Automatic annotation (TrEMBL):
It comes from Hemibagrus wyckioides. InterPro entries: Epimerase_deHydtase, NAD(P)-bd_dom_sf, NAD(P)_epim/dehydratase. Pathway: Amino-acid degradation; L-threonine degradation via oxydo-reductase pathway; glycine from L-threonine: step 1/2. GO terms for biological process: L-threonine catabolic process. Belongs to the NAD(P)-dependent epimerase/dehydratase family. Pfam families: Epimerase. It catalyses: L-threonine + NAD(+) = (2S)-2-amino-3-oxobutanoate + NADH + H(+). This is L-threonine 3-dehydrogenase, mitochondrial.
């Protein structure tokens, strides 16, 4: 790569910053207007109105943390709110020790994956070297477990201030609206998943950060090979979530080639976790079944019994993320990798749970939006490049996953009943 392409060009960067001062106001005005126009269109279109039912359902569902955040974003994301976090940011920076450890910022850190990742990275790099951020208020235990800071990824100056004041070297970009929630609010998904990503890419390139952006099985569509799906093939997803993730993969790789940005991306399958709730995706059923099985002995599944999707236990997902971030650059023959652990259908998962809880009753009430999404996604994921290049290997298959989830949720509900 030529030196002139090696770095984000300083002139480009200065120009970009200058333009942002003006552009951000105009862009905000334009975005607000667009948001109104799209909301009007959204209310008028019968098909989209039908989708809003999905949103309402998700909003009322106790498992769906993201709807709360989606409402919060609507209030704050287009406002000209300026950063109040400068003092917070420098407060956090004073406690950093001067070691070789990366200084990590995780955006969208209060979702299903962020808190677990912070825990893993803090174990490795030290508590104060990993800052969680989000636009939501952190629960008490998260707030007291290490540095937390407010950060709206649509606020470019706020992001830059946090990166500069805390001397961030690694950025893990988790903020997103997932597949089902994204279909229910396309304008918001477009803003967070696409405009937000542009801010992240520019900041990472300007400040020489190592950037991790997760992609998903949802970055593939009905015309992709589905069984198995390789790293490189046709990608024509039919959701705004998938479209935004293909965009992220391509933009990240472009910034890598054009500016030398150290961009790393894993396409995650559906992630299953016991102590954090999914944020409104198509694979959420595979988490909810465990909670319902333990608490009520009944589960109503919103996908057909034979819908096969790739899945992974959260510990494998977070370890893969750390491993690819630490992988020596010469081992990476690509910048975007599929990773996988297992594939199963709701029926197969239910049967495995019933081995432990034979009284579990499973019924099916198909959500057409989620079913259409699932039918367009990979059934099996080919992750041989990750396995060959940086020795990716999963630990959890279906039986271990089920055992671990039931142990965790079972012991948790016993504690709750006792107290
Ligand atoms: N959980 C899964 O099964 C999978 C997740 N991924 C990806 O991993 C990443 C993390 O996923 P989850 O934790 O499950 O997502 P989540 O939906 O649980 O959390 C996303 C977080 O982003 C935050 N957010 C929304 N708008 C924001 C804004 N303007 N500024 C800052 N933060 C904002 C929300 O408050 C929320 O806490 C996402 O990019 C997702 O696409 C990919 C494949 C599978
Ligand atoms: C697989 C994903 O990206 C996510 N869990 C979703 O279902 O939207």
């Amino acid at each position: 790569m030529s030196t002139q392409h090696n770095q984000f060009d300083r002139r480009d960067s200065a120009l970009l910053k200058e333009q942002r001062g003006e552009a951000s106001y105009t862009a905000r005005k334009r975005d607000t207007l667009l948001s109104f126009q799209l909301t009007y269109w959204y209310l008028k279109m019968p098909v989209v109105r039908a989708l809003s039912k999905v949103a309402k359902k998700a909003l009322l569902a106790p498992v769906c943390g993201c709807q709360v955040s989606a409402v919060a974003v609507r209030h704050v994301s287009f406002s000209p709110r300026q950063v109040t976090s400068a003092s917070d940011a420098s407060f956090h920076s004073v406690s950093f020790s001067e070691t070789d450890h990366p200084k990590v910022l995780i955006t969208g850190g209060l979702g299903q994956l962020g808190v677990g990742l912070a825990k893993l990275l803090r174990k490795r790099f030290g508590k104060n070297n990993v800052i969680l951020s989000d636009i939501r208020k952190p629960p008490t235990h998260v707030f007291h477990s290490g540095p937390f800071i407010y950060s709206d990824i649509l606020d470019y100056k706020n992001l830059r201030e946090i990166v500069v004041n805390n001397r961030i070297t690694w950025l893990v970009h988790y903020s997103a609206l997932l597949s089902a929630v994204g279909e229910a609010n396309v304008p918001l998904a477009r803003a967070v998943n696409i405009t937000g990503l542009h801010n992240i890419l520019d900041i990472a390139a300007e400040h020489g950060l190592r950037l991790f952006v997760p992609s998903t099985i949802g970055a593939f569509g009905p015309t992709s090979p589905r069984n198995p799906t390789p790293d490189l093939c046709v990608q024509r997803p039919r959701t705004i979530y998938g479209v935004s993730k293909v965009h992220a993969e391509l933009m990240g790789e472009y910034y890598h080639h054009r500016y030398g940005l150290d961009f790393r991306c894993l396409r995650y399958p559906g992630i299953i976790s016991a102590d954090s709730q999914p944020g409104g995706g198509t694979t959420d059923y595979a988490v909810q079944i465990f909670h319902d099985a333990v608490k009520t002995g009944k589960f109503e599944c919103n996908l057909k019994p034979d819908t096969r999707l790739p899945m992974m236990y959260i510990d494998d997902c977070l370890r893969a993320t750390l491993e690819v971030m630490e992988a020596p650059v010469e081992t990476l023959s690509m910048r975007t990798y599929n990773i996988n652990a297992m594939s199963f259908t709701p029926d197969e998962l239910a049967q495995e749970v019933q081995k432990q809880l034979p009284d579990l009753q499973v019924t099916y009430n198909i959500d057409p939006v989620r079913q259409a999404i699932a039918d367009s996604w990979p059934m099996n994921f080919d992750d041989s490049n990750a396995r060959n290049d940086w020795s990716w290997k999963h630990d959890y298959d279906l039986p271990e996953l089920v055992q671990t989830m039931l142990n965790f949720i079972g012991s948790d509900s016993q504690v709750a009943q006792a107290s």
